[in-house]
């Protein structure tokens, strides 16, 4: 079982120290907080209407694309009843041909793009914002996706749509995204051309212009998330030249572009939160800290202050030191080695040996450098232990079902490390997606880069018995979520969004993902990719979210 590494323990110590060092007078804001109805960042927290805004949220990438507005409204009402105040969803739905039925937002084909502004196009997004306002829920729109595997595309051995029982838009990776642009507009077809190629940039910015200008004045939008899980590689491989700086520079450029259209809303990344203390930085300023005199947010009970804290430079020196010590002290374990399984193609991108893949830059993500970009308003990170390893040392990947206690501890440490990292930069941070696959859900579990459940895919059979384990029990999932929510609240996260919401009794409709389980005429359920909450555990999860929503305020 992986144990907590020393540097996490050290980080915990620092987190504790921060309240010791915070002087009592800091509970009084130095400057009056903004009373804007738009979310702003102040003193390490989010502020709306002049009050601190901390949230428990949920993910429903599919929500705008339901056929029935009543179903959307009902879903939002149920979320609200569980204490949810933020829903994160996809503000993109790219297609390569116009579907016969159902919604789509942008056609990417024949060397150009066409944006659908009709009722089954961008007006879906208008609708979700309008209905969210009725239910007092804020919307976090993500603008594109790292993941979009398509049929027969080497090296991705997948099938899709008509060849699988999963309908269009069922999976989160079936809404187009970065690779849809790369396939259409580049010759090399390497994933990172999305970040660097000027033709791709031009078309993506046209899309951003259309979407962002639509909501620039609407306070129901919490923030713009630039991309879900941006990385150097995807189902399309990375070029050898992609580094963390490639991804960071893209964030800077696009965040500036977004703010040039919409100065009202905050911009966040959407990355997984991977660290790379050893990577060269573009924005991270070791000393002095960017916001050394952050004032506490109004109404806040916790004290987040950078005063008395180690500066970012010292913090990360310490991380590096502890990490190396931990690495030296730990011998390799037996088992299937799948370290770096999500990594970019180039071995050279690993910045140093002996570090866990969430800490060595191998995904091309340096979350602290990204968070240091002036135009990035708050940090975001994710926690999916069935798909990523969050250990600081490169042991083999251990599925949550094989080491539940270790998984929970590592998740807690990950949350605390993200909070400490954001504190060092002086900005808020939110966990924008977290989830665990249960035994009941395991047959439905499709990793974000795949189109088939691991349990049934011939190509993934080997992994389903090895790296993916068997799923945890409902009780374990509940206890992990409760632990992580509590850890996030204590660490001072601004929000946590569970992945993903489930909804029953939805109207099945042609061209949508809502399938009727019992034949035509019956009612359907929302997509389950292994993280849905229907079943025996549902009420427990909803209760836990609600409890957390009461505690986070
Ligand atoms: C902020 O004020 C607006 C307008 O009164 C209201 O609709 C909204 O719910 C408020 N938001 C919060 C988080 O209080
Ligand atoms: C692309 O162009 C071809 C040739 O003009 C046309 O047949 C096809 O329908 C176009 N595809 C889309 C998706 O518009
Ligand atoms: C972008 O991709 C296109 C198509 O592959 C290529 O012609 C062009 O040179 C690329 N532009 C840059 C700046 O790499
Ligand atoms: C998804 O990622 C896993 C881990 O890297 C890999 O083993 C698997 O082949 C990938 N699946 C697809 C369909 O690309």
TrEMBL record:
One of its GO biological process terms is: mannan catabolic process
The record's principal subcellular location, in a coarse class, is secreted
Q: Which UniProt keywords apply?
A: Glycosidase, Hydrolase, Secreted, Signal
Chemical reaction(s) catalysed: Random hydrolysis of (1->4)-beta-D-mannosidic linkages in mannans, galactomannans and glucomannans
Q: Where in the cell is it found?
A: Secreted
GO MF assignments:
mannan endo-1,4-beta-mannosidase activity
First and last residue of the signal peptide: 1-22
| Residue ranges constituting the Glycoside hydrolase family domain according to the UniProt record | 38-273
| GO CC annotation | extracellular region
Pfam families linked: GH5_mannosidase
Q: What is its EC number?
A: 3.2.1.78
Top EC class for this record: hydrolase
Family according to the record: Belongs to the glycosyl hydrolase 5 (cellulase A) family.
This one is known as mannan endo-1,4-beta-mannosidase
